[in-house]
Each structure stands twice: as C-alpha cells, then as structure tokens.
Amino acid sequence: MVEGSMAPDNMNGYGHYGESAQEVSIADAIKRFEQEYMGRSSKHIRVYLVKDIAVVRARGMLSPAERQLASTHEGRVLIKQLWVKEMEGLKSVLGYRLESLIGIPLSGLTLDIDPREDEWIAVIRLKPESSWA
Fold first, then answer.
1. Which of 29, 27, 50, 21 is nearest to 131 (CA)?
2. d(CA 119, CA 43)
3. Could you give the 3-state DSSP secondary structure of residue 121?
4. Average pLDDT along the chain
5. pLDDT tens, 30-42?
6. N or C: which end of the chain has fewer CB within 10 A?
7. Residue 112 is inside which H or E element, if any?
C-alpha cells in the first residue's frame, strides 16, 4: 500500500490486511501482544508469508514524544536500545504465542526496529520442511 492511498477493501479495522486468514490472524496476534505487553499497538500491521518464513511489518507504534526523540541520531539510538532490551524478555512470549496460534514449531524469531521510520519488523522462521500452506 502506498502511503496516502486509500486502504484496500480487504483491510480490517486494525489497520492490517492480507491475502489469507493466516496472515490476518498473525497480525491480530501481534496486535494483542503489543497491547498486552507493551501497553500500546501499531497503527498498521502487514504480514507476508513466503515459503517457510513470515515477515511482519508494524508501523506507527511510537508516541509523539518518541517520534520527537527519533528526530535526532542520539534519540534513535536510545529508542532502539530500550526497545531491544524490552524485547529480549518478551521474545520468548511472542514466539510461544505464534507457535500456539499457527500450530507449527518455529525455528527462530528475529526482531528489529527503525525509529526513524516508526516501524518494527519481525521475521518468523518455521522449522525445516514446514510451510504455511
């Protein structure tokens, strides 16, 4: 979706959309995780399923104060350090929730944040020889 464009017809009320019910259910699980453990959630979440990986792109999670802080290099470094520290303890919780949701064991979960773009990315890897289909 191009920024500033109209939302596609298949976008749900949470600001995410997908081609499959599995993409939407993963996005919903990410949204609930953010709300329960971080006290807020992203405005837009998009999930891409490709063979044995899923890429989650979540945008619009920073508060106005954090967006202001992200306008400087030092501020972006601080936001990233805090987010990484928070996610260290929560990564196993998110991984467990995703495994429970999809019913497929995960091989790994990689998370990163880009404060300048106000987005975070998750790469979910399934165990070898598994797929989303």
1. 50
2. 10
3. strand
4. 86
5. 999 999 999 999 9
6. C
7. strand 106-114
